[in-house]
Amino acid sequence: MECKFSALAPVKAYGGGIGIGESLRNGFVLRWKASNCRICEDSGGNCGFDNITYHFKCFCPDRPHAWNCSNTTRLEYSPAGNNRRVLVIGLVTSFAGIGVLVGIICYFCGKFSSKKIIYFWKKKTLTYQSVEAFLRKNEPLAIRRYSYSDIKKMTNSFKDKLGQGGYGGVYKGKLHDGCFVAVKVLKEPKGNGEEFLNEVGSISRTSHVNIVTLTGFCFEESKRALIYEFMPNGSLEKFIYKENPSNADHQLGWETLYKIAVGIARGLEYLHRGCNTRILHFDIKPHNILLDENFCPKISDFGLAKICPREESVISMLGARGTAGYIAPEVICRNFGGVSHKSDVYSYGMMVLEMVGGRKNIDVSVDRVSEIYFPHWIYKRIELDEELGLQGLVSKEDEEIAKKMIIVSLWCIQTDPSSRPSISKVVDMLEGSIDSLQISPKPFLSSPPRTTVDSSTATVSL
To answer: What is the DSSP secondary-structure string of 152-175?
Structure first.
């Protein structure tokens, strides 16, 4: 009688073959379970397969018996043999496994269309390749590349967080030589990796006392981080807004504010004129100005920066980039003029006015409507030669510093870019005599509500 089996699976392939075709060519071992073989075993026989009759039989020393088998036994298949049934069984089993795999693939294809899967894979691959190509091209950069495990070690698994922004978090780290660093861990990358390339590509070209130093970076699949010199006093914003109770003990004197304003202007002058290529920052604001232990300012966060030839005064740009409240009018609407280095000058002017007023330029919490937009309020006082009404003015020198910073800033925020001074002229105005400064025309535009523009939606072309 034939035995009925309930399980069949390849056990071993001869010759090291791992594929179906190679296993069939070289031979393989199968195991199965049959039924009712106890009588055969009790009589001293062994269940086996008859190659002639294709039946499972009980083989005894004297003669074969027709009892059914139940023990687990082995059958070796060889191409030279005539075991066609075993071949069919092996093929059926293999195709069943392939069918399961096809079913799984079809399930996921139902959730994600093939076009989406191909697009996602292609986009991710191209982004990774473009960044790697850029890094290889700029291999001589004087900055070190770290692995993500290195980043985790230097930050003690991101234990000490210094700040958070739209780009990701900043953590305090420590290098092997004992030097402290600030590690900016970027969020899951969007777009084509433009922000990461902007940061590495632009800041690695710089070397200036008023530009933060990039000492290293990490690019490992989706893990991206930037390692900067550590700035003990953090960002400028925590020192200038008087309405914040936490800043009560961190107010800066007018002399210090003035030196910070001059230092930022010198940093911008270097970006606009001191490099081999002109670098436009596009995100000058207090949050992106870092202060060292001596309150020396350093411009940071070059994620929105644009590198362009020095001889080009106007660039072509699609979409707005920056932070509302500091964005120049022409960056939002081209009817006001072309986008150029004068756009950074506008942002600088708005920032210095916040340093002077100790408040946001737009403040709806003030009592009088005329004070909501600080540039208009302070312009009227300068125009009428009234008391400035600013906190901390304790001497004539303080008043002159404040007045000089205000006049220069009002020139910087002129609506027409051609009416604004270059940043080099701004440095001259700040360092010159206040008697040589003329009052600017009144800036007639107010800024939009203070929300951050998503830089990932901005595309740039030259």
So the answer is: HHHTTTTTSEEEEETTEEEEEEE-
pLDDT single digits (tens) 52-69? 665 667 777 666 555 544
Crossing angle of helices 396-412 and 423-431, rounded to 10°: 160
Contact of 71 with 108, CB cutoff 8 Å: no
Long-range contacts of 168-172 (CB under 8 A, 24+ apart): 172/230
Compute the distance between CA of residue 217 and CA of residue 174 in angstroms, rounded to an integer.
14
- The C-alpha atoms of residue 393 and residue 355 are separated, in whole angstroms, by 13
Residue 184 in marked binding region:
yes
Task: Give the separation between CA 115 and CA 392, rounded to whole angstroms.
Answer: 63
Structural domains in the chain plus CATH codes: 8-111 (no CATH), 125-229 (3.30.200.20), 237-460 (1.10.510.10)
pLDDT tens per residue across span 272-311: 998 878 999 999 999 999 999 999 999 999 888 988 887 7
pTM of the model: 0.69
Active-site option among 62, 177, 249, 283: 283
pLDDT for residue 10? 53
Q: 283 catalytic, yes or no?
A: yes
3-state DSSP call for residue 281? coil
Q: How far apart are CA 401 and CA 355, in angstroms?
A: 12
Q: Tell me the helix, strand and coil percentages in the chain, rounded to 5.
A: 40, 20, 40
- Smallest CA-to-CA distance from 169 within 147, 190, 185, 182 is with 185
DSSP 204-270: TT---TTBPPEEEEEEETTEEEEEEE--TT-BTHHHH-TTSGGGTT-PPPHHHHHHHHHHHHHHHHI
Report phi then psi at 366, rounded to 5: -70, 160
Residue 117 has pLDDT above 70, yes or no: no
What is the rounded CA–CA span in Å between residue 201 and residue 405? 33
Residues 168, 174 contacting (CB under 8 angstroms) = no
| Helix pair 423-431, 254-269: axis angle to 10 deg | 150
Task: Tokens 């009234």: give the residue.
Answer: 386
Residue with tokens 């390692």: 227
Average pLDDT over residues 167-196: 85
Cα–Cα distance, 167 to 181 (Å, whole number): 18
